[in-house]
Amino acid sequence: MAPISSPHFIIFPFMAQGHTIPLLYLGRLLRRRSVAVTIITTAGNSPCIRDSLRDTDITIVELPFPQDIDGVPPCVESTDKLPSMACFLPFVSSTKLMQHDFEDAIQNLQPVTCIISDIYLGWTQNSAAKFGIPRLVFSGTGKFFHHHVSNLEQREATCRNSFT
């Protein structure tokens, strides 16, 4: 009989404090349950994460953040460093350019049981599917918000259909 290995979760928070902090806490909770945890981040965000997790054995893997992105100032790797919210959408879009490096990291971290990534990193679903790894989505706004957005979208579609 083969030995049972502990589960290994990859956690990939979006580069914003309000998204990172809850996922680091989740990582700590998982680690207490003997789950191996790897946090994916960028070099610019790594010092804060390393400081926050210094009393744990959680692994941290750094990916390069895309450079020369139109609408994103150089060396900005977190939303709190954006000069204005006009830079937010280009910032979010630029994270897609991290997909190749993310997939390389997954290959080097095998076996991976689950990926937990932020709602703003939707492209990680494709990466998880590519490797046959389940992906869970973290959304800082929670189910209540998403329920109401979905409800509003349904009402809008109903109104639109009744006038056509």
Any overview of this molecule?
The chain has a single domain (8-162), classed as Glycogen Phosphorylase B (Rossmann fold), CATH 3.40.50.2000. α1 links the parallel β1 (8-12) and β2. It has six helices and five strands. The model has no long low-confidence stretch (mean pLDDT 88). It has helices spanning 17-32, 46-52, 88-94, 99-108, 124-131, 142-162, and strands at 8-12, 36-42, 59-63, 114-118, 135-138. With 164 residues, the chain is α/β, with parallel strands linked by helices. It has a five-stranded parallel beta sheet, with helices on both faces. This is UDP-glycosyltransferase 90A1. Belongs to the UDP-glycosyltransferase family.
Secondary structure blueprint with pairings:
Elements: E1 8-12, H1 17-32, E2 36-42, H2 46-52, E3 59-63, H3 88-94, H4 99-108, E4 114-118, H5 124-131, E5 135-138, H6 142-162
Which terms summarize this structure?
alpha/beta, 6 helices, UDP-glycosyltransferase 90A1, 16% strand, 164 residues
